[in-house]
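Students often ask what a holo structure prediction actually looks like on paper. The answer is less mysterious than it sounds. You provide the chain, you provide the ligand, and the output is a string of discrete structure tokens encoding the 3D arrangement of the protein together with nicotinamide-adenine-dinucleotide.
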Amino acid sequence: MKKFRIGMIGAGKIAEVLHIPNVLNSDLAELVAISDPNADRLQYITKKFSLTNVKVFRDYKDIVNGDLVDAVIVAVPNHLHASVSIDALEHGKHVLVEKPMATNSIEANRMVESARKSGKVLMVNLSQRFFPHNQKAREIIQSGMIGEIRLVKAVFGHSGPENWTQNVGWFFDKDKAAFGALGDLGVHKIDLIRYITGLEIEECVALTATLEKNANVEDIANGVMRLSNGALATLDANWITKGLEENYVAIYGENGTLKVGQTDPTKIDLYMVKPIAYHGEIVLKPLFTNEDPYWKLPVADHFIKVCLGLEKPIIRPEDGSISIRIIEKFIESNRLQKVVKIND
Ligand SMILES: NC(=O)c1ccc[n+]([C@@H]2O[C@H](COP(=O)([O-])OP(=O)(O)OC[C@H]3O[C@@H](n4cnc5c(N)ncnc54)[C@H](O)[C@@H]3O)[C@@H](O)[C@H]2O)c1
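The corresponding structure tokens follow.
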């Protein structure tokens, strides 16, 4: 069978640890091209993965113009997500784009519209949906086991992007990143609150600050949200957590509580009061550990199967644009110092 042809746009850190190795391991697809304006980065990546048969370009347009690829993965600084994705969609390519989907709702809506017009797949890499403990938590909640949801607490904090990529400058620059910890980390949890509970976020009140980084974006954001069933949810997204990474969700229902990845990243702690008092844990085999050379997440695999019509998408383009809108509302709430409705 002819393999599905993928072009990688951006040869930075997430391309290195997630996208390139997973495409190279795919039975259905092949990596045919890669682009990055940074020649050193291209050289490093092509050497590291021995990409001898992969075409290498400085300008991504050389990938999207013409018939070199069927799909692209867009993993560039945030301010380029919309223009590059729309360009690729308009050239008839399927697009997997990194989060946050765009720098504002107008851009995000344009991307959704462009995908609709082109009939091609547009998927946003809201990668935490693929973690087994998050999938399992969604399943437990959908089963009705913990009953009506009353409260969700979501936390994602680490010491900042300077400990992730060498190319950190753009993360701290509002013109390029648009958002700080909210767009980098908060976006995952905002999406996960919706994905795991099946509820919508209807209003929020938030405070943001820049306490440590030499940046014009927030390095800490905390907010409270009201969900569509009246429940409350809290979000703590920050780049000021030292000595550990905190990355979890806790869900409090009328019959019990789920701590998802809070006491251990591979574990769900389940506390029930009805029908019987019970405390148990579900231990899930991790998809990868820090010892693995790359993230074994089925993001590219799922995207490829959706493009080939083999799977239904677990992330719709609108999921990306809704999370951008909620982030914008956090920032608006901080600016106005009041509760704001998400859909006003
Ligand atoms: N889903 C996740 O879990 C996850 C994790 C980390 C990063 N990300 C996202 O991935 C994106 C990239 O982040 P990163 O950490 O890899 O950053 P990075 O700075 O390491 O890499 C970005 C790369 O894009 C390149 N680039 C800039 N302009 C380009 C252009 N016009 N064409 C092609 N390449 C271009 C840069 O030279 C750089 O090599 C960001 O949007 C980030 O939020 C997502």
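The first strand starts at residue 4 and ends at 9.
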